[in-house]
């Protein structure tokens, strides 16, 4: 494998088709494409909003077992499955999140698939792209500037400077901005107060951007953002600051979904990218519904493992947008199952069927949740690695048989779409329409809702929280926010809130440390465990290796 | 005039031509256009860099008298003159700065000309445009994050946290970010220190972006930015932090000039937009040289009055890029001359030839500087307002006659290009090639250079500064920065550093409060008077009036 080509070399070896041709495959008239060069376009949201969902449109959710350092490959599976469905003669489109530039220059590098299951043009997608994140940051930061200006100009709304929830955002990993004091330097430079910056993907504006169904809906949601509270704790909104119109103007172009292509020339929407902890972790509703209007199959992905990503996809995005996936693909790997069975990262390439067997508890729980709680047909997609042995794959196959779930081993990373053809066949066979089932009804109390997710999805015995948090929940309910669904921010590496508990821990307690109202996005965030909303750079940032030559070719991103 | 159509209505009444057609008029093959929709494109800088300047290419600098609240109209004159030159059968292109979003949502509204002398599409140009400012902010803020990360990870370079000059930037008016403390919250959240945010246009990265002649030159300049000093005061650069490659990668697309059109369908480059005080206040070298390679006439603008804008255009941009304007147009108005003659803003519409006569001292000084110091042919362009009387215009005409300078009254605001046809004729007649003359030689000392500008351009008796500032200058010279040209930041409303001194004050002293090294941009900034590098919002921000309707039409920008 030493001579395996890099992602960037693979991408360069595949010429891209003009984006008009990609649009044409989806029946998009060129007049509704707003092009960014020859290979990226936005599809006019106004045109898309007028289109009905195709009667035969199917939605595939790609989710995974609990993430491990070994990597699962949800994005490559989403891309590979889209390519495979197209190979089988279906009209399929992928719907994915936009990558944040923070990790690109930090530790992780670019994010647009990998190997022979990539999106193109990968460099553009990873740097600025169509400016959506910059527009979201501008809208968020205009709101923040208007808020601090309001304090400075006399504070007619009576905002309590100690009770301001809104933070500013940047799309960079910058830990020194987490906790800051602003407004220093004397009376002409604003009102001093504590605050901080989050990364763009952690902002409520990002979550709103991804959940809005139209520009009017976007503006209304932006107006509902609770930015601060008064001394009597009553909420102050973005609409109170008269900021939501200008914010929506800043986002008016961004909300049209971005169209790109896979290496095999199949269409992919890449639009929006909220965190999967503090927010719901899926691409925009606009992109997913565009797929359902234009293609037979829309393959989409939700962040982290199924306990976080799929749960939020179903309980938040699908509930709000009136969607239901026809089938869920749970991506698993031999390596990550061994990790959940207790194997150290350094030993994951060694065959260990016993550890693998133990680790399957993680897979079982995720599959069970999707089938029993959410009532979804499930297919297991094993993302094959070179070190996987047949004996190990057989352990996985046997378990799938016991569960009565289709399992296919896929090799899209090395083989592109044809490597996922069997998986695509299983997906087509398994897909079945139905009614959306959720983990809880919204008319339950906020406490009942978080408890339902903890016990039904995480396997917890229950939920605990301080009396201060309980009072906060009561206040939200008194203010009329009790009917909102819940968004739980916990570690992605375990079903529990303890990142070190592998497999499928049971009987644990979910401790809620803090609750936050996201009235614009339309959910209440329950913070359970450490929540990182502004990452830091590592000792040797990836940025040090990134360079551009005289001809504009960018190196070191992937 | 009550029924005069708004700028946005005028723009909407003029259909835009496809940007390919605009490019074709300049001989740009479509393959070298990177389109943003149908009406905006970047022209590939790699292709442009290979083109020679046309033998007959002429460069017109549009500058003005000292700015007053009455407004002079440099941008409308630049657009009108470009349209007029095209009407006269010349191939002319405008080269202008990109507007910052800060003022758009603050007090000033959009900036892309006005009336019948506008750029199109004006809303796009004023909001995000092609993402250049977002890319500049991202590059600047990545550098800042790498710097604070370096402190946090052990500070191997020995940076003195009290001597960090680099600030973060945002493209928003946000006074509360001027003076801040970052890195609070304990040892995992960085190293606490004082800093602040500037607006993007005030950043050295913006100045570098506008002065770079190629991607390689850009990267080198970025690497030379002095971000901080050690305890022994020795400089630490962006290259020391290994940040310049990634910064250049973030700017690799942005450095290609943006092409749009005037209302009359003539080409205009709109690219870069540094402040005219702390930086040099002109569009990018890339855009100006693109014009000189592709058109017969390139009409460009420099910020503020000629004492700041034209001086920096000539002493900084032209000197560095090997340019020389063939003619300078000094924009003046009857109203602003009356203002300089002592008339209050409220009374400017009343005829007052005596005050006008007094105010001409300001025009005389600017014209004299351009002719005598810089050796440029000059034309006076009077931007006519409805309240101007013939008697007043005659006073202006007489003075031009006495000065031996052509003067033409232009009505492009109401009449478009044909309203500036006489002015264009005078420009064509006056233009003459020559050798660039500057206000000082770079081999003079830094003190001699600032003194030359103060005495020769501002009419000052001399320069004064504290011994601390003098020591700082000596240090710059010891470090090898003594050969850099100087960039003086002072009020734009007076030749002196006192904003209230109208007309043409003489014998004043220029007090230097602070000096800053911009080693990447390649100049030393002399701060004389208050320097605002992060504006604030007014009591009632323009943003409150800005809105977008369901169809995406944005209102309230203009």
TrEMBL record, chains A, B:
It comes from the Bacteria. Keywords: ATP-binding, Ligase, Nucleotide-binding, One-carbon metabolism. Signal peptide: none annotated. Coiled coil: none annotated. GO terms for biological process: tetrahydrofolate interconversion. Its EC number is 6.3.4.3. It is an enzyme of class 6 (ligase). CDD domains: FTHFS. The keyword ATP-binding applies. ATP binds at residues 68-75. It catalyses: (6S)-5,6,7,8-tetrahydrofolate + formate + ATP = (6R)-10-formyltetrahydrofolate + ADP + phosphate. One of its GO terms (molecular function) is ATP binding. Pathway: One-carbon metabolism; tetrahydrofolate interconversion. Belongs to the formate--tetrahydrofolate ligase family. HAMAP family: FTHFS. This is Formate--tetrahydrofolate ligase. It comes from Metallococcus carri. The lineage of its organism: Bacteria, Bacillati, Actinomycetota, Actinomycetes, Micrococcales.
């Amino acid at each position: 494998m030493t001579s395996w080509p890099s992602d960037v070399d693979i991408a360069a070896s595949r010429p891209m088709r003009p984006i008009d041709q990609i649009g044409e495959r989806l029946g998009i008239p060129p007049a509704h494409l707003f092009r960014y060069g020859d290979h990226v376009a936005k599809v006019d949201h106004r045109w898309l909003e007028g289109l009905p969902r195709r009667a035969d449109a199917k939605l595939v959710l790609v989710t995974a077992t609990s993430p491990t350092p070994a990597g699962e490959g949800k994005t490559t599976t989403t891309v590979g499955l889209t390519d495979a469905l197209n190979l089988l003669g279906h009209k399929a489109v992928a719907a994915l999140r936009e990558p944040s530039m923070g990790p690109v220059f930090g530790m992780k590098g670019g994010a647009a698939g990998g190997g022979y299951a990539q999106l193109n043009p990968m460099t553009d997608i990873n740097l600025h792209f169509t400016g959506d994140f910059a527009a979201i940051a501008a809208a968020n930061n205009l709101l923040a500037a208007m808020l601090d200006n309001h304090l400075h100009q006399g504070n007619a709304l009576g905002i309590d400077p100690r009770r301001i929830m809104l933070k500013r955002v940047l799309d960079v990993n910058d830990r020194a901005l987490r906790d800051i004091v602003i407004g220093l330097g004397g009376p002409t430079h604003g009102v001093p107060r504590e605050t901080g910056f989050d990364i763009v993907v952690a902002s409520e504006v990002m979550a709103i951007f991804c959940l809005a169904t139209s520009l009017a809906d976007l503006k209304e949601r932006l107006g509902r953002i609770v930015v601060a509270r008064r001394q009597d704790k009553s909420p102050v909104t973005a609409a109170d600051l008269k900021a939501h119109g200008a914010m929506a103007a800043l986002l008016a172009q961004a909300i049209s979904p971005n169209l790109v292509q896979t290496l095999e020339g199949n269409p992919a929407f890449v639009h929006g990218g909220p965190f999967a902890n503090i927010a719901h972790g899926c691409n925009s509703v606009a992109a997913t519904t565009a797929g359902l209007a234009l293609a037979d199959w829309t393959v989409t992905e939700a962040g982290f493992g199924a306990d976080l990503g799929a749960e939020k996809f179903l309980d938040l995005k699908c509930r709000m947008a009136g969607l239901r996936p026809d089938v869920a693909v749970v991506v698993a790997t031999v390596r990550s199952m061994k990790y959940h069975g207790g194997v150290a990262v350094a030993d994951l390439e060694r065959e260990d069927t016993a550890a693998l067997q133990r680790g399957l508890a993680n897979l079982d729980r995720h599959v069970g949740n999707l089938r029993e709680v959410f009532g979804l047909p499930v297919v297991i997609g094993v993302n094959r690695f070179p070190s996987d042995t047949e004996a190990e794959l057989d352990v996985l196959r046997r378990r799938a048989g016991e569960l009565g779930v289709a399992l296919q081993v896929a090799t899209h990373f090395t083989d592109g779409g044809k490597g996922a053809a069997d998986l695509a066949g299983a997906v087509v066979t398994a897909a079945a329409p139905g009614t959306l089932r959720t983990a809880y009804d919204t008319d339950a109390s906020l406490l009942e809702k978080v408890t339902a997710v903890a016990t039904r999805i995480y396997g917890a015995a229950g939920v605990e929280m301080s009396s201060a948090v309980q009072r906060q929940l009561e206040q939200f309910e008194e203010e009329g926010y009790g009917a909102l669904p819940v968004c739980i921010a916990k570690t992605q590496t375990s079903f529990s809130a303890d990142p070190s508990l592998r497999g499928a821990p049971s009987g644990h307690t979910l401790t809620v440390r803090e609750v936050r109202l996201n009235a614009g996005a339309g959910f209440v965030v329950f913070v359970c465990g450490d929540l990182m909303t502004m990452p830091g750079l590592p000792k040797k940032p990836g940025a040090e290796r990134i360079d551009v030559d005289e001809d504009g070719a960018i190196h070191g991103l992937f």
